Amino acid sequence: MGLRELKKERTRLSILDAALDLFLEQGYESTTVEQIAGAVEISPRTFFRYFTSKDHLVLWFHDHGEGIMLETLRSVPSDEPPFTALMHAVRAVLSDMQGSTPADAQRFLKLRRLLEEHPHLVGLSVARGADTERRMAELIAARRGTDPDQDQLCHLIVAFAMSTMRVGFECPRRDGTVTEIIDRMRETIALAERSLRPGWDL
Amino acid sequence: MGLRELKKERTRLSILDAALDLFLEQGYESTTVEQIAGAVEISPRTFFRYFTSKDHLVLWFHDHGEGIMLETLRSVPSDEPPFTALMHAVRAVLSDMQGSTPADAQRFLKLRRLLEEHPHLVGLSVARGADTERRMAELIAARRGTDPDQDQLCHLIVAFAMSTMRVGFECPRRDGTVTEIIDRMRETIALAERSLRPGWDL
DNA sequence: TGCAATCTGTCATCCACTGACATAAATTAC
DNA sequence: GTAATTTATGTCAGTGGATGACAGATTGCA
């Protein structure tokens, strides 16, 4: 990786950190892009070259997780039932979190606090989730050898899987460590698996 | 109802209709609020007194449906299992659609076409859905006599129910009549009920 | 008819976001 | 090491969504 890419990644994280801190300090709405840019000494125009929008700052984790999930989905043996495969994908995200640097863990926890204090921001995440679901439904349909337009079940499978994930990540009132969150997520997965009729997703 | 409220409702619908037509004609992004306001001969400022934002135009159906669902949820006997109660609420929305005026049906179909052509607008709807889910989870928790912060299952129940609804309304490639959509939705409900383990939501 | 409440338009302003262009920096080729 | 190329950054000007303040018009009611 060249010096250029390295520096780019560093400013990218600087922007993210500065923004998270500002948001938590003075609120999301009342923080302007100009302020964020000022904090990392770049022009507002440059900010938009790193993040397509102010909202995008909040979506970095979602994007990261989506990448891992899609990747996992493609690599998981195709004789596994779809929902099981999706739960594998979710667990892959958890593994990634477990192996993340302390700095990344900090960012994740800050993001969670932010979402807790500004519930309407959760909407941004689930909005992008709609996109993610469409992509996943295609993969699942391919797995099932069906046409996503005809096959309602593939959409339902994906929707249930993402619901499970979302519920698992939902903010418990007192925020814990990353490990606690991962444990909670595992419980939720178990709960979902218990709730579904065996073989429903075949 | 006074003359004032009547007139207000009429302009409200005029704005909505003009907007839907413009969106379908020339796209969502490339239609400005100024154009919409111009089409119904009001000032842009007044537009924002009828709809809190441009996006809000797309959410009128969601808001309407949410109202019906919450209302139904409160009136349904509390010895019914939560998921069953939620499916009743969904069916109440379908009944309302069945009894709607032709004009309303037209609006609904136009909205669907719009969402089909601009998938990213679906995000707006599911974003608001996150809000809706939180409110519903409280009702379900109350029903179950639990604290929504502790009880993961109540969130899962609501999330699964809303997923079912969303999948049911998802655009099939060729758009049909309102009746066809309602039938499709009923199938989806049946599919979801078949997928869940009996008694999972108790 | 006249008073009070409410609706509307105008104006000024903020902020997110984008295209165009010039400059500065890093990468590559020689 | 320097020149040429590619890419990142800043400046500037502009668009469009959204909000507060105020004045004038409209409606509802006594």
Automatic annotation (TrEMBL), chains A, B:
Q: Which residues bind DNA?
A: 32-51
Matching PROSITE patterns: HTH_TETR_1, HTH_TETR_2
One family name in Pfam for this protein: TetR_C_14
A Gene Ontology molecular-function term?
Answer: DNA-binding transcription factor activity
Q: Which residues cross the membrane?
A: none
- Keyword terms: DNA-binding, Transcription, Transcription regulation
Ranges of residues in domain HTH tetR-type: 9-69
Record bears the keyword DNA-binding: yes
Protein's name in the database: DNA-binding transcriptional regulator, AcrR family
Give the source species: Nonomuraea jiangxiensis
